Amino acid sequence: MEGARDAQSEAQKQFKSALEQFGAVVKVENTDLRKAYEKLNAEYEDSEQAAKKVSDRIDKVESVADALFEEWEEELKLYKSAELRRSSQKKLQKTKTRYRKMLDSMHRAEKSMTPVLRTFRDNVLFLKHNLNAQAIGSLRTEFSTLKGKIDGLIKNMNEAIQTSNKFIADIKQ
Question: Of 26, 114, 126, 171, which has the most beta carbons under 10 Å away?
Fold first, then answer.
């Protein structure tokens, strides 16, 4: 699972968002909106990773605790002294009860991160989409620049064609 996760993470790094690709092709002004988006997006991604680490850590705690409790229960059978076995079994039950309360608290804290992350993501997406609109608006400028270059290129090509036609006509005479 960790290998799959790492591979997925690497794949994500390989792909740029459409906005990043657009920025690489078309010069987009570095506006306050762009700065705010980039800053908040980086913070969101950091927060998302931190939340994942918390969840992974809770999973590890559960795994270790389950193994410890299972081992403890198996080892109760090894006691020769009934009194010590009962005492250990009682301690096991108390420990399990405290552990469940602690684990419930950890899961509540973990679940409380989800709505905050969703709201954060919504805000980042809203900024990104406003930035997208701004970037698309800059296409008008890019189109004007390209149109000017195309018009100049067509003019140069027509002049070259006229020159070559004249040269060919002169050679024929």
Answer: 26
Cα–Cα distances in Å, from 20 out to 3, 23, 41?
Answer: 27, 5, 12
Instruction: List the structure tokens of 41.
Output: 């997006």
pLDDT value, residue 11:
46
Non-local (6+) Cβ contacts of 107 within 8 A are 58
Quickly list DSSP for the chain. Answer: -HHHHHHHHHHHHHPPPHHHHHHHHS-----HHHHHHHHHHHHHHHHHHHHHHHHHHHHHHHHHHHHHHHHHHHHHTT-S-HHHHHHHHHHHHHHHHHHHHHHHHHHHHHHHHHHHHHHHHHHHHHHHHHHHHHHHHHHHHHHHHHHHHHHHHHHHHHHHHHHHHHHHHHHH-
Contact 63, 143 (CB under 8 A): no
Q: Which pLDDT tens digit goes with each residue over 40-59?
A: 899 999 999 999 999 999 99
Between the CA of residue 115 and those of 57, 110, 118, what are the distances in Å? 20, 10, 5
The amino acid occupying position 66 is: D
Q: Tokens 């705010």 — which residue?
A: 36
Average pLDDT of the residues of the chain = 82
